[in-house]
Amino acid sequence: MTVDPPLVLDIDGTLTRPQGWGIDPRVFDPLREWDAPVVVATGKAFPYPVALCHFIGIPELVVAENGGVVYTGDDVFFTADREAARAVTEEYRAAGYDLGWGPEDTVNRWRETEIAVNLEQPIDPLREIAASHGLEVIDTGYAYHVKDAAPNKGEGIETIADHVDVNLGDCVAVGDSINDVSTFEAVGRSFAVANADEAAKAAADEVLEEIHADGTLAVLERVRNGGA
Ligand SMILES: O=C(O)COP(=O)(O)O
Ligand SMILES: [Mg+2]
């Protein structure tokens, strides 16, 4: 008997339409029908991947905020301290800059452990202030994330794998950016979509020819039901 391998999937750049934004609706059916756990591992705030799982119709196995929040379906783990990130953004604002998401800021509103800054905002002062608080800034191609260097997606999926009794060596991951490197290092087999940044491409076992969801759908076709 062959079965589908467990999946670890990034969202932005990976499940997105080839135009670069918005979930590609073609991923819904294959993921709902997938015959093994599907973990969504993202830099986005916790409610986003939970909602994505909910609307796809799959169990909520979620790494959010680049590993800062981990949900095993039973327990939520917070692995980083939001106060440090908040102090950085307060200093950034006090210096005359803005996070760039408008007054209600739904990007950060429900964040628990890190802060995201719009890519149109100046990064040099952000990096400087972050460094003075012992935090790093990563650029996912979708946002700058001010975060603790320690937690990452890879550690988050280890927590979930323990809980759902999945062997990480059996997992197949797809991603597009530097925040997926730790995922790629944790799983048995990793793919970077063609639009991936250099860090993700260097860390992946294989770089795909297709971009965004076209790449992910090509991987699903290949690995489903024990395929190579
Ligand atoms: O939140 C981001 O900047 C990127 O999100 P992702 O990890 O799902 O690609
Ligand atoms: Mg991504």
From TrEMBL:
Binding-site residues, Mg(2+): 10, 12, 176, 180
Metal-binding is among the record's keywords: yes
Enzyme Commission number, as recorded: 3.1.3.18
Amino acids binding substrate: 153
Entries under Gene3D superfamilies matching the protein: 3.90.1070.10, HAD superfamily/HAD-like (3.40.50.1000)
Active-site residues, Swiss-Prot/TrEMBL: 10 (nucleophile)
Pfam families, A to Z: Hydrolase_3
Alphabetized UniProt keyword annotations: Carbohydrate metabolism, Hydrolase, Magnesium, Metal-binding
One cellular component term from this protein's GO annotations in UniProt: cytosol
Cofactor(s) listed in the protein's UniProt record: Mg(2+)
TM spans (from-to): none
GO MF term set: magnesium ion binding; phosphoglycolate phosphatase activity
Similarity remark: Belongs to the archaeal SPP-like hydrolase family.
Functional description taken from the UniProt entry: Catalyzes the dephosphorylation of 2-phosphoglycolate.
Protein name per its UniProtKB record: Phosphoglycolate phosphatase
Upper classification of the organism: Archaea, Methanobacteriati, Methanobacteriota, Stenosarchaea group, Halobacteria
